[in-house]
Every structure is written in structure tokens, then in C-alpha cells.
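Morning. Coffee machine broken again, so started the prediction first thing and wrote up yesterday's gels while waiting. Chain of 232 residues, entered below exactly as on the submission form.
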Amino acid sequence: MTPKRLLLVEDDKAIAELVQFHFEREGYVVTSTANGEEALILVEEVRPDLMVLDWMIEGISGIELCRRLRRKPSTANLPIIMLTARGEEDDRLRGLETGADDYVTKPFSPKELVVRAAAVLRRVRPALAAETLDYAGLEMDMGAHRVRRDGKAINLGPTEYRLLRHFLEHPGRVFSRQQLLETVWPHSEEIELRTVDVHIRRLRMALGEHGGGDLVRTVRSAGYALDSEGVA
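Came back before lunch.
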């Protein structure tokens, strides 16, 4: 399975290094920053599966960063664990009300943080912990490398399979052509953007082979998403 990506936003260097060490030991790919403004840029570049966010950081605060991420469609469902020295009940509630999925108070056990991160991912993004991905009648068995729609087998080429897997891991989320190119193609710097459109067409044709609505939504000037809304 594709390694999970963590964006760590923590301005205490010692804590950041400790957290990064423990997550990398569990197979995560970790990107770290101490600055809230930089985190807003990195979240679009890295497209993390999870964010560990300190309350008090440079630039904008962790609370404000969380609030902004929840307002953006591309990051509205990003799992976020708030990491802070604040332990009062009102502060915890404020963090959760802002949109954090969990709240860990310093000092903490890095091992416990990793376990809680896994629990958040299972709850918020079950696809990351699954061997089978399901969405709107689509079923991808990653162990057997098989895809079915409404019980009927779908034959996909390797690239279309990778595209569909990426979409199934992030249903409803819009990805630009550049984002898809960088995620799905191993040597994206050698490939033109229009190649994405070609494989999206092939994926659509394969998924519609046995009938049914078009599950791949084109978002004008934005990109593509796997979205069952509006499909008959």
C-alpha cells in the first residue's frame, strides 16, 4: 500500500524531530514545518493523509490554520490532530470545535500519538487502512488487483488502475491535472498534462462498459474528482 503522508506543523525542533522519528519508523512519509503560512502551501504540494498541528506556531496560529483548512474544499476532510500544551477543557473544546479530529496535550508519548493517528485515519479515512476500497458500487480488491462495478468485472490498464485507486482513496476530492500527474505517474516530469486527459477518458470508458452513470466528474478549470453526486 502507498505510504501514508504526514504533514507535521511544530515549532519546537526537539519535539518535531521526535515525532518525525516515530512516524517514519511506522512507515509514514513526513514533511515538517514550523510555520503556519508555509503549512498552507505545503498542504497543497504534499497533499498529506494526516496533519499533526501544534496550537502555538509561527505565522498564523494552529487554531486559525485549522479553521482555514476546514473552509477549503480540498482540505475540508483532512484528518487533523491538534498538539498543544494547553490542557484546559475550554481550550480542548475550542480546538475540536474548530475542526480538529483529535487533541493531544503536551507532554505526550510519541508512541501514543502514532496510535491515535492510526485511530483517526481508520475513523476519518478508512480507505487508508483497508485492503478493499468501495465507493458508489465500485469495489477495488488491492490484494487481488481486481475491480468490479455493481458486481461486474472491470478491466483496467496499469495507469487507469492507479488513477482509480487514487480517486477511491479520496472520493469527492478534486485533483488538478498536475496533482494527478505527480501522484499517479512515476516520472511525471517527462509527461505532458494532456496525458492525464487521455487516461481519464480511458478510465471513464472502462467504468461505463456495463452501463451506469459517469462517476468521474470534470470540474472546469480545476480538474477531476470521483463523485457519485448526480449519477442516476
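The first strand starts at residue 5 and ends at 9. Going to sketch it on the whiteboard this afternoon.
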